[in-house]
Amino acid sequence: MGRHRTGHAPSEVRDPLFGSGIRASMGRLKHEGAGVRTGFLSMARELPGLVAVTVRLARRAAPRDLLVVLVAELLSGVATVVTLMATYRVLVPLMTGGPSAERLASAVPALLVVGGAAAAGSLARAAGKAAVSRLGPTIERLAYTRLLRLAAGAELAALESPGFHNLLEAARQGTRAARLVIAQAAQLLAGLSTLLAVGTVLGVLHPLLLPLLLATVLPKGWSAVRSARARFVSAQRNMELSRQLEVLSGLLTGRDVAPEVRAHAAGDFLLGHYDRLSAVAEAEQARLGRDEARLALAGDAVSGAAGVLTYVTLGLLLTAGTIPLAVAGAAVIAIRTAKAGLISLVMSINQVYEQGLYVLEWERACDEAARHQMSSGPVPLPGHPVEIRADDLTFVYPGQSRPALAHADVVIRPGEIVAFVGANGSGKSTMAKLLAGLYLPTSGRVTWGGVPIERLNRRSVFDRVALVAQDFARWPATARVNLTLGHPEGGDRERLWRAAVASGADAVVAGLPDGWETLLAREFMGGTELSGGQWQRVGLGRAWFRDAPVLVFDEPTSALDPEAEIEIFDQVAGLATRGHTVILVTHRLASVARADRVYVFAGGRIVEHGRHEELMRAGGAYATMYGLQAAQYAPADT
Ligand SMILES: Nc1ncnc2c1ncn2[C@@H]1O[C@H](COP(=O)(O)OP(=O)(O)OP(=O)(O)O)[C@@H](O)[C@H]1O
């Protein structure tokens, strides 16, 4: 997706654990985002743009604090200029004529200015610092919540793309980076004002000194910015590797996989791969370190040479009598001040550039997520139940070449129970999600009441659907929230009770220490864990609580005991008699006998459809599958 592309050489060695998925970490990822430029000048030109993104954020987050920061840094800059100029006024007469009571007395006003300006500068810096510390966290929160809002509203298909996940990861770093950028940008302003002050003083002392000062400044800035860029590019190239390392550490410490990690002795296996991949990351760090050291050396060499040249020039100007000793003394003070300011300036440029690139990634991820926001058409669904159809429907998951569904036709009339059956991976769940409006067709149409899903108000479609997906969510929240999530009617006790009884969640809740208020998340203090079947009852309860006209059940009873399973299928049949439409994805063929129509999927296509009896008579794929299941229950001696 987007501009993230991976160059994948055919001869590439595949990773023993992640297969071709590791290719990005082998340094082949061609990251074209974040305005990564090669030339120093274009990078320098980029710097204001990088800062501007954060400043825009800051303006939205806390405009008053931003103003305080800007004014404070400006004042501190002015204070530095005044301090230096006044110091110069004190020193020159004293050094030219030698100290005397009269000269000392005449220097007092300038000394007072020095003191006053220094105090004003300190006050301004303190106010700026306080404002920055307020602004930073607010910017970070604003940036992160914007990213979260956009990611949560993106099309489900966008979240299937690994490129988008890499971008999201960089964007997450970008939200933290925005906080650093604002702090460092303030320091950069302060550094620049010091340089400006010193430059002005040097320019007044002798015009030659100014270009020499610049010659000591620029090479260091050059090496800092090149280093920052190298670090950023390296981090981007290794984003996939970092995520894979995180996945491995999550597997080694996670609760869900802990039993298998132990029972299958997978710990050493995973640790071995962690070590191997860490070694790749470390090698990259070492390479980066060498590059950075070379860059720093080059910058220091040129800066140092320019520094020597400055003092040689001062010496020559002195011996030639072009400038008096006092002026040379003031120049030395100015140059030393410049050096101190320079170090902090270089650090700030470094940080602002490097972190600014991440902020740019945040902006790019927000743009990308905004481009993939769930679309919604203008047509609202009518109040009464409508027919749902798929016509010549084809769907290809993002990044995949083979369609998960090809040229499939389905008709679901209001109040019908329609079952999808077929082998694993044959496209049943994909069809259910497309009919529910979670994905948009690659080609062909899904229509509700004759209106294509793209033209419908998506919200109104979701409002009509209750979905129990195969991998339904286990919300780390109370039992009550697990049934009522996102519903303002959460407090309706009667409705909650009906949903719990229908799904069998009532028995689960009755056994919980705090009933409805029990936290269903073992990873938190006071939390409780449910069994697979108990979770499934809770998931079903959620669908019942929604009381939607269309219910999609994807393997709703896979973890239930036989009694509960029969109970649930009776409930499902009851739903249809009360006018609900039911889409049932299941491998339990005994339960589809009551369906109005059964669609048989194979390899992404629908190969048969009809009532149970018709399909049995036809003697095709359905009859074969049914026969196989029935044989399992036949008495062994017959
Ligand atoms: N999120 C996804 N991204 C990419 N491919 C997917 C994704 N989900 C499913 N697929 C692929 O689409 C095809 C159909 O999957 P689907 O989940 O619809 O099958 P199914 O019939 O419901 O299978 P099962 O009976 O195992 O639940 C499979 O080949 C699967 O690998």
TrEMBL record:
Entry keyword Transmembrane: yes
Annotated Pfam families: ABC_tran
Name of protein: ATP-binding cassette, subfamily B
InterPro entries listed in its UniProt record: AAA+_ATPase (IPR003593), ABC1_TM_dom (IPR011527), ABC1_TM_sf (IPR036640), ABC_transporter-like_ATP-bd (IPR003439), ABC_transporter-like_CS (IPR017871), P-loop_NTPase (IPR027417), Type_1_exporter (IPR039421)
Domain ABC transmembrane type-1 residue range list: 67-354
Superkingdom, taxonomy of origin: Bacteria
Gene Ontology CC terms, in alphabetical order: plasma membrane
Naturally occurring in which organism (per UniProt): Nonomuraea solani
Molecular function GO terms recorded: ABC-type transporter activity; ATP binding; ATP hydrolysis activity; ATPase-coupled lipid transmembrane transporter activity
Compartment(s) where it occurs, according to its Swiss-Prot or TrEMBL record: Cell membrane
Keywords, ordered alphabetically: ATP-binding, Membrane, Nucleotide-binding, Transmembrane, Transmembrane helix
Membrane-protein topology: Multi-pass membrane protein
